[in-house]
Automatic annotation (TrEMBL):
InterPro entries: FlgN-like, FlgN-like_sf
Keywords per UniProt: Bacterial flagellum biogenesis, Cell projection, Cilium, Flagellum
Function: Required for the efficient initiation of filament assembly.
Protein name per the record: Flagellar biosynthesis protein FlgN
Pfam families: FlgN
Length: 148
């Protein structure tokens, strides 16, 4: 049972490292001049890895329960305290997860800054171009009142 748990931790660590690598690519895309072409495959891979990580966490919790430990972090801490191999792999997983968490938080901030910039640019454009008769509206048509 411990070997299965250890194998799951190894696989989980590998998936978290892959997730962290994708987050690095996401950071590069978010700081690019035009990220729109770069982001869709990154988001797709992130979604795939999140699903894999959820499955691995579920497997880990199931194995912990079979070993008589509670699920989640507390159960893993207890299991790790009984086996040095588990403790070592658990430590690696936690460090990788923390790096990924920091990177994900940073990317969230980059997204927020970009969205704020876009909103301010849009607001400036809306103020700079007053609605006058004969101007096209946001839908590409001349408003009915101006078409007369």
């Amino acid at each position: 049972m411990k070997d299965a748990l250890l194998a799951t931790l190894v696989e989980e660590h590998s998936a978290v490292e892959a997730f962290a690598s994708i987050l690095t690519l996401e950071t590069k895309a978010l700081t690019a001049l035009s990220p729109l072409e770069l982001l869709p495959p990154i988001v797709e891979k992130k979604t795939e890895l999140i699903g894999l990580l959820a499955n691995l966490e579920s497997t880990r919790d199931k194995l912990l329960a079979e070993m008589g430990f509670p699920s989640g972090w507390s159960g893993m801490e207890l299991a790790a305290s009984t086996d040095t191999r588990l403790a070592g792999q658990w430590s690696l997983l936690q460090k990788a997860a923390e790096r990924a968490r920091r990177s994900n938080t940073s990317n969230g901030e980059l997204i927020r800054v970009r969205m704020d910039y876009n909103q301010r640019a849009l607001t400036a454009l809306q103020v700079a171009v007053p609605q006058k008769a004969g101007f096209y509206g946001p839908d590409g048509r001349i408003p009915a009142r101006a078409a007369v």
